[in-house]
Amino acid sequence: MLCEKCGKELEANSLFCDKCGARVFQEAENNYYTNSAPQPVQPMPPPMQPTYQPNILKEPPSHKPIIPLIVGLLAIIVVCFLAINGKLPFGNRYVSMVKNGHPTGYPNRTYGDAFNNFFSNPKWKYLKSTNGLDIVQFDGDCTYLDGPAHMVIQFDVNVSKGTFEIYAMEIDGTPQNKFLISVFMIKIFES
Fold first, then answer.
1. Strand 147-158 vs strand 163-171: parallel, antiparallel, or unpaired?
2. Is 97 among the domain residues?
3. How many domains does the chain have?
4. Is the CA virtual torsion 174, 175, 177, 178 positive or negative?
5. How far apart are CA 170 and CA 182, in angstroms?
6. What are the distances in angstroms from CA 86 to CA 47, 65, 77, 123?
7. Taking the model in full, what pTM does it have?
8. In degrees, to the nearest 5, what angle opens at C-alpha 187 toward C-alphas 181 and 188?
9. Range of the domain at 171
10. Furthest-apart CA pair in the chain: how many Å?
């Protein structure tokens, strides 16, 4: 008898082909058809998979991977806090450049000295703008129109050229035009 699938010669009582694994259908020995219904075929159980005996002695859990993870998370939190508050070390050179600089018309007076004398609660910080500019921001309180006011002045810093210029100014959240910025700078440096 030959395998119907691959044509290999089969042994007389084979149920499956040794070469391709196809099921062999054998003719009834008496060569006549029966009216009986086909018998249901039981599926073959899946082949046995080897089982492994788990290690009975359990090792205590190692905390070594957790420690670097905690240290890394703390470092990220500290960097984020410093970045939000503008106190990262790389921003200090930008702030120092503006504080130690001076306008052309006032070569003997730095922005740091003039702003510290004119404003109360002066605060300087570095930030990177959304359009990629290096910005030094000054915040301080002053008197404006006979009342207390909060002023924010931003400087656009170009470290490679060693220059900076006033980028924007707000008084109590209201942006000021270039003319008013010039007037305020004169008042700040002459006070």
1. antiparallel
2. yes
3. 1
4. positive
5. 13
6. 66, 32, 14, 10
7. 0.53
8. 85
9. 89-190
10. 124
